[in-house]
Design a protein that fits this description.
mainly alpha
Length: about 625
């Protein structure tokens, strides 16, 4: 057999796929046309980039890969030739032909295998459960029972319209995600990622616990242009985890710190991850509105972690960066590499569309390294860049498109509305009890699923129920997304923790548990979305500033409560006061009399700790003397 066949196909399809996606920026195709070509080109690339490995049965694996790639390309041709009919047909009225049913069955099989290869059985098992439910609805428990779908109905709702496999998730990948994946790949290739780490190292070099704070700042900066928690972990963790370990942290502590720091990258504007783009598309609002809503929560996320790291370092005395780790290349000659993210943010703030801002940022990222000799890259690297962009898009797009199957089955079967009724009944119209149930549901769904998959399922099932209880749609969506993001470090399946553990060569289970303990410092933040819209940038400038101040003070107090230390070991009473003051500040709308009182209590208890610690130090000094 010719072992070069699949690599050659990989290159050919990668260039074709990149050309097709770039074409959508200048000459966009109709949504159904763009979605179908995109889904099956991405699926064929998954088979190219991750061929089967059958040990000695290499010929059989090779033949099967070729058949799968050919089948995916055939479906591209099938939907292109049938496009005019599909775009003009009347749903549930015009006939569904046998060739449509064959295309549906073939598409489902290919996508299932693409999901298995790209993200494993976790997402595939969820999809199969929903498909099983779609077929055998009459045999499910009474509260979930429904007549079930026929093959004709499933073919129509999943692969014959801009819904299901070719719905909002596929269109989001084409219209939004691609441009930011492209920007992230180019920026990393041209040295932007390394300069973020170096800036973080210099900024935190002399701080207490500087090694962990370096990881925190570096991951936050990298997260601004990445939006992928696992990619953030693997990119920054290679440098930060060894430094943290050398500074005195255990392997598990170092890996857990990097994991939770990288997880926040999915919440950090301007590029908040795929889930944020899907949210913008589902809500029908500009992406900039989602990015603005995510700013204060993201700052609170990293501020809470910063305080936790600082308190722990001051209490234990470990975590300072060693002098030998500070030998880095000069930053000043590389500062021009930051022009692209600065321009990207500038264009977003100026009101330009997110794809346009990312496209401009990508072009600038390609060109600006040639401004100085020390940052120029060989043009032959562009070949690898094309393959990298195509691979990352395929790895994101196939699971993302597959979630559309879950969406359409959940809505068309009324399963989503049945969950709304169930949540309302169990929660007994108690908002905070319902919120806790939503948290549990989001974390369970996020175990092993990509964040975007967990978010979409959560938004279908939980957001309508929260909306019925008076929570704004934006707040409900942000609440669900936040906890789906935190599932990346929540055992038993914590993808970020596992990636960090692999880099640190630490025990993955212990790393996950440590990362979860660190994540507790974040768990309080989303409750403010429900109580105070100003936290999500909804309100006047004064209301937003007041909400931001309250959020930061509340997260500070919550961090102190969890650590049990602030200049001294806290008593039980002091920890309870910190707990009550922080919770009340979060769940009360900013500016009310109760909120003002809790703000004062937070400040007073902090002042009390500083005062009593100082007095205790004086007493100890007097005894020694």
């Amino acid at each position: 057999m010719n072992v070069k066949v699949i690599p050659s196909l990989k290159v050919l399809i990668s260039f074709l796929y990149l050309f097709f996606l770039l074409k959508q920026f200048f000459y966009p195709d109709p949504p159904l046309y763009a979605a179908t070509v995109h889904v099956f080109l991405a699926t064929s690339l998954v088979f190219c980039f991750k061929p089967l490995e059958w040990g000695k049965a290499k010929l059989g694996a090779f033949v099967l890969d070729i058949v799968l790639i050919a089948a995916a390309l055939y479906l591209c041709w099938h939907f292109i030739t049938e496009m005019e009919r599909l775009q003009t047909r009347l749903e549930m009225i015009d006939d569904v032909f046998m060739k449509d049913k064959v295309a549906f069955l073939l598409a489902m099989g290919l996508v299932f295998e693409g999901v298995r290869r790209s993200v494993g059985f976790s997402l595939l098992s969820v999809i199969l459960i929903f498909v099983f439910y779609a077929w055998f609805g009459p045999y499910f428990p009474s509260w979930t029972e429904f007549p079930g779908f026929t093959l004709t109905e499933l073919s129509e709702i999943i692969t014959m319209k801009t819904d299901g496999l070719f719905g909002v998730t596929a269109s989001t990948a084409v219209n939004f995600v691609f441009f930011f994946v492209m920007f992230g790949c180019i920026f990393t290739l041209t040295g932007g990622g390394s300069i973020f780490i170096d800036i973080a190292m210099l900024a935190t070099a002399k701080l207490t616990g500087g090694a962990a704070k370096m990881s925190l700042l570096g991951s936050a900066l990298f997260g601004m242009v990445s939006g992928s928690a696992v990619a953030n972990t693997t990119s920054t963790g290679v440098l930060t985890i060894p430094i943290m370990h050398r500074s005195g942290y255990s392997k598990e502590q170092a890996a857990a710190t990097e994991a939770i720091a990288s997880t926040g990258g999915q919440l950090m504007p301007p590029i908040m991850g795929v889930a944020a783009f899907v949210m913008a598309d589902m809500l029908g609002v500009p992406y900039t509105e989602i990015a603005a809503a995510g700013l204060i929560p993201a700052l609170a996320f990293y501020f809470a972690l910063f305080i936790m790291i600082d308190l722990r370092a001051r209490k234990t005395g470990v975590g300072n960066i060693n002098a030998e780790d500070l030998k880095i290349e000069p930053i000043k000659p590389r500062l021009h590499l930051l022009a692209s993210p600065v321009l990207l943010v500038g264009f977003l703030i100026a009101g330009y569309s997110a794809p346009f801002a990312a496209f401009v940022g990508s072009v600038v990222s390609l060109l600006v390294p040639f401004a100085r000799k020390n940052t120029r890259y060989p043009l032959k690297n562009l070949y690898d860049l094309v393959l990298d962009i195509a691979k990352q898009m395929a790895w994101v797009s196939v699971p993302l498109a597959s979630v559309g199957i879950i969406m359409v089955i959940a809505t068309q079967s009324n399963l989503a509305f049945k969950f709304v009724a169930l949540l309302t009944a169990v929660g007994a119209n108690n908002l905070y009890l319902s919120l806790v149930m939503v948290i549990v549901g989001c974390i369970i769904m996020g175990m092993g699923l990509p964040t975007v998959a967990a978010y979409i399922i959560g938004s279908i099932i939980f957001v309508p129920a929260l909306a019925d209880m008076g929570v704004s749609t934006l707040a409900a969506n942000m609440f669900v997304m936040y906890y789906c993001v935190l599932s990346m470090v929540t055992p038993p399946v914590a993808l970020c923790s596992y990636a960090a553990a692999a880099l640190a060569k630490s025990d993955s289970t212990k790393t996950g548990l440590v990362a979860f303990s660190y994540a507790l410092v974040i768990f309080l933040v989303p409750f403010s979305f429900v109580s105070d819209p100003a936290v999500l940038w909804q309100g006047t400038a004064f209301e937003i500033m007041l909400a931001c101040a309250g959020m930061m003070l509340a997260t500070f107090s919550w961090s102190v409560f969890l650590q049990g230390w602030l200049k001294k070991d806290l008593s039980i009473i002091e920890r309870i006061v910190f707990l009550a003051a922080s919770v009340c500040l979060i769940i009360e709308k900013s500016g009310t009399p109760l909120w003002m009182a809790m703000f004062a209590v937070n400040i007073l208890i902090v002042g009390w700790c500083f005062y009593t610690a100082k007095q205790a130090a004086k007493s100890d000094s007097a005894v020694i003397n």
